[in-house]
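Final report, Chapter 2: Outcomes

The project's central promise was a pipeline that accepts a single protein chain and returns its three-dimensional structure in a standardized token representation, suitable for archiving and comparison. That pipeline is now operational. To close this chapter, we reproduce one record exactly as it appears in the project archive, with the input sequence first and the structure output second.
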Amino acid sequence: MTSATRSTEHATFAVERHIDAEPARVWAAWSDAAAKRAWFAPPNPDVRTDYTLNFGVDEHARTELADGTVYDFDAVYVDVVDGVRFVYTYDMHCNGERISVSVATVELLADGDATTVVVTEQGVYLDGLDKPAYREHGIGEQLAALDGSLHG
């Protein structure tokens, strides 16, 4: 890529989802490696994903699509308040090229016997290879998968 094709796009957005489960169950689904893998990197015959989670420290996912495209997700946790919130920084690569760098905050807000999950992301999306709308959509899909894992 030449300097003429380099670009940055900054964005902040929040995705909110009401989940019909107590905060402790939602926290466990997010902080336990096996539970999170079930909704974050579920088995798919057309996709190969290597996934590790050391909650509160770091997290890694490498996903290879059927067409050979490889995505890498590498996160470092910077703040964890058990059962309440966590903050992590992460970067995404596609075929070895960095496409974005983000700071994400996940908050679990008690709502009776349910939980409102709020994911706020502040990111820089690089060289037109990633877009805030793609990420916002993806986070919405992840929250739907999280919700489904708690009721499936």
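Archive annotation: The CA atoms of residues 34 and 53 lie 9 Å apart.
This record, like all others produced under the grant, will remain available to the consortium after the project formally closes.
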